[in-house]
Amino acid sequence: MFKNYFKIALRNLWKNRTFTALNVVGLTVAFGVALLLGMFAVFQLSFDRFHDHGDTIYKVYSEDSGPYGIEANTSKSEPFAAALRDEVTGVEKITRYSGSGVLLTYQDKQLGMGTAYVDPDFFEMFSFPIVKGDTENPITSESSVAMTEQAAKRIFGDENPIGQTVTILRDEVEVPFNVTAIIEDFPDTSSIGFDIVLNFKSQNEHAYARTVGRWDMENHEVYMQLSEGLKPEQFEKSTADFTQLHYKNEIDNAKRDGFEPNADGLYRQIKVLPLADVRFANFNQGVVSVNRTMPYLVLGISFLILFIACVNFINMSIAKSSQRLREIGMRKTLGANKKQLFFQFWGESILVFLMSIGLGILLAVVLLPYFQTLFRTQASLATLLNPSLLILLIFSVLLITLIAGGYPALLMSRLGTLQSLKGKLQVNGKNRLRNSLMVLQFGIAILLISGTLVLWDQVEFMRTKDLGFNKDQVIAFPLNGKLNDQKAIELLRNTLQDKPNIVSITASNNILGIGKDGNRTTSVLGFEHKGRGVDTHMLVVDADYVETLDLNIIEGRSFRKNLVSDSLSVIINEAMAKQMNEDDILASQITLDDASYNIVGVIEDFNFQELDQHIAPMTLFALPNWNLRNVYVKVTSQNLEQAYDDVKTAWNTIEPNVEFQGSFLNENIERTLRNERTMITMIGSGSILAIILSCIGLFAMSLLIVAQRRKEIGVRKIVGASVSAITVLLTKDFLKLVVIAFLMATPIAWWTMNKWLQNYPYRIDLNIWIFLAAGGIAVLIAMLTIAVKTIKAATSNPVESLRTE
Amino acid sequence: MKNTLLSLNEATRTVNSGSNKVTLLDNINLNVEVGEFISLMGPSGSGKSTLLNCIGMLDHFTDGGYTFLGEPVHSMKEKNRSKLYKEYIGFVFQAYHLIDELTVYENIETPLLYKSVKSSERKAMVADMLDRFNIVGKKDLFPIQLSGGQQQLVGIARALIGKPKLILADEPTGNLNSKQSEEIMELFAQLNKEGVTIIQATHSESNAAYGSRIINLLDGKIV
Ligand SMILES: Nc1ncnc2c1ncn2[C@@H]1O[C@H](COP(=O)(O)OP(=O)(O)O)[C@@H](O)[C@H]1O
Ligand SMILES: [Mg+2]
């Protein structure tokens, strides 16, 4: 029986090889791409899921009432973690966490190392298993260092790392550390990343010693493990006394300033966020929102593409079933029952699907390296090699095969014996299904195309928008060497002094956009001004900052060349001026704990943060000997490449042991658009695939329709129909479907894109042309697809077509 | 020994064509004994095919009684009915209705597959049948590679392989020339001698003459 089915399946597939090929190609591409996209999504979604205690680990943050509503604050102060553990029940374990880069030296090697500064609980909470050395107290000592296998390999090669001594540059001193433990390399799906782990107390003076016992200096994150069985909401509620005790001032001030309390009616509340949500959380826009749109969008696209390919399969199978009516009828008269027929036809579908899945996996393997580069992902097929996931995968493939292959099989097995024998098929109902499915296909394609266009438009807008500073002529790079910042800047100034293509040099503790090193920090300062709480971003700058970045002074003056004379002066931006609400802003002061600062100038607002955020109040300080992290060099516009090389050479002579990580600010801005770019590539390739697959289906349908209407075409030509009239006759039904798809998809696309654009305070206006363009593209491509066959049919000799009937 | 194979009692078939009720078969009374060779005659559209299909249980009477081997077909469930015809009835069609994608051998074998006959037994049965119809040399050909007469031979072989008690042949020679027709009719006569009951629909007087009884149909009635 099986052999009989198998034979007839192969013979049928071969007989209809055009359609088999169209189906196999479509399904192969769909399965291959779905596999890649699914892998990407699973990879994203599996972030931080590998920790054994992951279910009970939380990131601690607070909801603070501020002038702009609730702000989520993940920065915590030095005494916070210990106090929380001691004063609130339910804290099983807790660790402070601060990540930064350090310069590590071993013999003659100097290496930049990603460093996690943590408390000893860290290794008991997170599953970063120690494979060698001290498994009990790897970093309890402040002179111990634990490192990953990879880092050890980089530093020591094949030597035994345990017991070795390395030095780490801290406060301009080489401090020796003893290697106590080697940590197993962790999966790429960890949002906590590091090469080495040090005790929290091993940080530099500025980050640790200075902050000890201070509740007002917040500079690190805190992770905790909740006691078994305790609900996070319960825990959050039980922290009320704790906040009352330690944040009384802040709470009283918030009440006094009339800020809105949070959903629980509190002005400051300790909250915890599950570890698995951390990667998807947005702490920057009010209440923390956890957003897994990206991976789900990608999953969604992969399903849509599979759907489109399956629709092609269903449509072709149903359309082709008329050729097998006699076989169906005959088999029934020979004693086949419905079940047997169903399994026969379903089996044929499975054959096609198996073939396509096999080829699809092959395709995915071949495309994987390109995919990884294009989407900057570490996701690989190994991501999917997890038993429960595999079962899910196999199950969904079976389900798809059951539906796409089973539905036509069911239709065929249900046909009446006599009707099938007579070759009669009630086609009307099935055409309606076919048409609806095709409308859906093209609707999806149009949705994705218009999404791509809108996204692209918005990203172009963000890329080219005037941000209020000179991004084309300014090179920025991190001060990543051993020299003291001020010293390094001075040397750089001296070296580049005579270069005609260097306009000016400055530095600040902040970066605009994202630099090559990927590091960035923000410092926000809160103080009282005339009995009100005021928040501002704090930027410490070197001389010529305003000039180097071409910021516009709208009131007052810039900092003087002799910066020391301005150490008690500040320049504020318009947003800050507005917040302070003074009649004579230049006569006002900002009073902090240590000193009072005169406002000497107001600069025009510029986008120092990304375009998904409003321009916040900001204050420029000219504090001496501050930790300035980044240099900015403005160069003349003539020969940018030469200028870049000059700066690089200068830096290499000043700091010969470290890499020059400079880039123009417009490249830094481009880096901030990475997520959007990835999304464009994703949706863009999705839309291209969607339209191609839809057109494969359309092409197949046009083949069948032309074949079915051959005689009609012949008769019409004989009675005088023109080629164009016949082409129109044959195409208009399909074009109608595409137009309906357009009408249905556009409102959905509009609504979705509008919603997405709301994430950006600076955004394009949606206009109908984008959507018309998307629809136009779809119609045009569809038309070209059908044209091939129909024009050929319309121009063929009518006598021939009649003779074959 | 007179043995009743099937009997029709006031069997009627009506269909709704638009708002009209059309009677295709009108109160047919018929007894078929085992071993009979009946020729159904009548002009085109008189209801011959409809009657054969209803007897063959591919179609059903809308009224009246139909008893097959003592079992009341008219009140039977679809499942039992198909079991019944799978077991006892073989069809031969004017248009042969061979499955194009299967070879001669496979076409003949198919009914056995649906009866779940064991592989070795199947081989023997098909080989017997090929032998008997003298088409051993053609067993690996596909239907389109055969002449009409040869295709009908395969059709008959396929109808016979399940060892049916009744063969229903709807204008089995309608697409054949007179020489081929004669061969097929000889074959039927031979089969009938071996005990197979045959009901054939035909236009041809000479074909009808092979039968042991002629029934004339006109507008769905026996005349
Ligand atoms: N399902 C049906 N619905 C309506 N009319 C039918 C149907 N089946 C057959 N007929 C009609 O019944 C009549 C008898 O048909 P048929 O049994 O094929 O005649 P014959 O085989 O004697 O030529 C014809 O007029 C035919 O059009
Ligand atoms: Mg007939």
UniProtKB/TrEMBL annotation, chain A:
Domain named ABC3 transporter permease C-terminal: residues: 301-415, 687-798
Keyword Membrane included in the entry's annotation: yes
GO molecular function: transmembrane transporter activity
UniProt topology in membrane: Multi-pass membrane protein
Keywords: Cell membrane, Lipoprotein, Membrane, Transmembrane, Transmembrane helix
InterPro entries assigned to the protein according to its UniProt record, in alphabetical order: ABC3_permease_C, MacB_PCD, Macrolide_Exporter_MacB
Any single Gene Ontology cellular-component annotation: plasma membrane
Domain MacB-like periplasmic core: 21-238, 500-649
Subcellular location: Cell membrane
Pfam families to which the protein is assigned, alphabetical: FtsX, MacB_PCD
Transmembrane segments: 21-43, 296-320, 341-368, 388-412, 433-456, 679-707, 734-753, 768-788
Protein name as it appears in the record: ABC-type lipoprotein release transport system permease subunit
From TrEMBL, chain B:
Gene Ontology cellular-component terms listed: membrane protein complex; plasma membrane
Gene3D superfamilies: P-loop containing nucleotide triphosphate hydrolases (3.40.50.300)
SUPFAM superfamilies attached to this UniProt entry: P-loop containing nucleoside triphosphate hydrolases (SSF52540)
Keyword Lipoprotein in record: yes
Domain of life: Bacteria
Transport is among the record's keywords: yes
Keyword set, alphabetical order: ATP-binding, Lipoprotein, Nucleotide-binding, Transport
Molecular-function GO term, any one: ATP hydrolysis activity
Domain ABC transporter: 6-223
Family matches, as InterPro entries: AAA+_ATPase, ABC_transporter-like_ATP-bd, ABC_transporter-like_CS, ABC_transpr_LolD-like, MacB-like_ATP-bd, P-loop_NTPase
Family designation: Belongs to the ABC transporter superfamily. Macrolide exporter (TC 3.A.1.122) family.
Protein name as annotated: ABC-type lipoprotein export system ATPase subunit
